[in-house]
Amino acid sequence: MHLPSVEKVRILFVDDDPSSLSGLISLLTEQGYDVQLAEDGRSALDVAREKAPDLILLGIHLSGVDGLEICRQLKADERSRSTVVVFFGEVDEASKKVEAFKAGCADFITRPFEPEEVLTRVRTQLQLRDLTVNLEQMVRELTEGLTPVTQHVRREIVENAPVDSPRDKILESLQESEARYRSLFEDSPTPLWEEDFSQVKKYFSDLSTSGITDFRSYFENHPDAVVHCAKLVRVLDVNNATLVLLGARDKDDLLAGLLGIFSKESLEVFRQELIALAGGCHSFESEVVQRTLTGEEKYIVLQLGVVPGYEASLGKVLVSTLDVTEAKRTERERLSHLHFLENLERIDQAIRQAESLEQMMMDVLDTTLSIFNCDRAWLLYPCDPAAPSFR
Hints:
Radius of gyration: 26 Å
Number of helices: 16
Distance between the termini: 36 Å
Helix content: 40-55%
Strand content: 15-25%
Order of helices and strands: EHEHEHEHEHHHEHHHEHHHEEEHHH
Number of strands: 10
Structural class: alpha/beta
């Protein structure tokens, strides 16, 4: 098995027993990745803070500091926030998936590892990371035209310029600059939102005054507060690509507020967004399943950035929503095909290893039943939940 080579990227493996990962580490190294090892969470944090890797494969259960806590600290640190975190663990640890995604991970892989699956997941996450980085650069350039500096310069020029200065030409130039950036916003192929979080900022201040210091615990224990904050956000504008993505007829469908488009999954991501902003972060990134106004589900990479100059008030925030539904669908189809081939191989192996026709039929039957997670009682009573050993 050999996949095409990739550009050199840094991957950090974090596990108490790195020797058990030797095969997978060798495989990733053969594919051109620069793989490093850390045997505990503290070492991983030190490495990430010194020079953040592109992707971290993190054990869900570590001695000392728990893997979930390591992920939270990575995402809370400006130096490592953009690093992709992929958890791995045993099958019986998969119940922690929800906690893992809440902590900020991008994916969760269960042991025993299927090398092809791991490579596919790693490549997909790195591709999504690259898309996000490119999008971040575009958003950064766009926000430069939305800063209050433009208005400040306009005021200074109008009020303080000499009488004989070409004010009209200067103002015309400024207006052209603003129009150019507004055009970038409206015509960008990436769906963009311009939002006002100033009332949310005031709510944070009120909570602090009342003695609330742990915003994470507060918003986790008060879902009504999350909904309240969603109502406080004022949508200032959306661009044309956003209308297309969400199936909106016009901007009025979306300017009414966020709750009109929020799903349960959206509120969970919004909660994480609030925790980040309340903690002083001026950027946030996550994946979310977004329902359009027509009821269709879209996989979205959401990226939020406070416009420079509005850090104190959060009065202007730019949010991009990159549609990665097709990439997710392709990944699911690829993994489904891999599992199909693996199951065929299991059946073929049962046939080749059988010493008699009777044994072959029994082994093939048992293998097939295990693939579908059922037993022989189901063959007799497939629709009777009360059948012996039915599941």
